[in-house]
Amino acid sequence: VILGGGVVGTNAAKIAVGMGAQVIVVEKSFQRMAHLDDIFQGRLITPAPSISCLDEILPLADLVVGAVLVPGAKTPRLITRSHLKQMKKGSVLVDVSIDQGGCCETSRPCTYTEPVFIEEGVIHYCVTNMPGAVPRTSTRALANATLPYVLTLASHGIERAAQIDPAIRKGINLWHGKLTHEGVAEAHNLECFRLPFCNSQVGSSKSENGR
User: Fold this and answer.
1) Where is the Alanine dehydrogenase/pyridine nucleotide transhydrogenase NAD(H)-binding domain positioned along the sequence (predicted)?
2) Overall number of domains in the chain
């Protein structure tokens, strides 16, 4: 069972399907679900997302991959202790979203020295910064992915770069000491300010509830 059909979830599904596993991907975006169906051509199951859906499929799982991501915000806790009690003893939970707080109630950050722990008979793997297991490869991949943005910043400066590149604009969290990222503001119940040099309205309201 894979929770989240983004980059991590999709690649986990590819590996699992390639190994002959029966794979269920739970994804809240129907557009993304359709994309997964196009990629896998019926080789995985994409049920309609709901809490009752988790009640039904988690007890069947040998392996659960938590690949949930809300950009800039804390990950919602989708798996509860009650869910774990219904799962198979000896089943495994890999919470990739642990860097954003984890998607399971019982998840807690681990290290490569002590990478696993057991709760309710379920083996938890919640190592933070999982790409650190292959530092040279992950560093090269990160450098290749970020180099175009570095060149844009170096060529145009931060203000102009943010105006011409939406990705850079979305990556700005603070500007002159003021919080400008909506997701971070919502997660911490703080006020969010609009970037002064961007036309798009980021908002300047205070979140009523933390995630």
Assistant:
1) 1-126
2) 2
